[in-house]
Design brief:
By secondary structure, this protein is of the alpha+beta class. Helices cover 57% and strands 18% of the residues.
Amino acid sequence: MATIEKKTSDDIQSLTSIDKIIHEPARLNILAHLYVIESADFLFMMRQTELTFGNLSAHMSKLETAGYIKIIKEFVGKKPHTMLKITGKGKQAFDDYKKQMKQFFNEI
């Protein structure tokens, strides 16, 4: 019968240093989409992430404050148009997040 080895706090240390801005599911969803497509308009992201207008706006603001996305507001004709674009810092943070999560799951 195989014994189950108990993991110590050192074994899961990588999880405590995980980027909490990205780790929140809605923000992870937003960044994952933008990582692949680089930029998208607000309505497209609302449909893809299934977030409400208010939720998406709040999470966009947190990602923008962290420097992970850029929000571009403009007018198309007379209608407001909002674009989201992942930044270089956002791509790097997402790559680091993926690496840390892989490391964590390889350790357990």
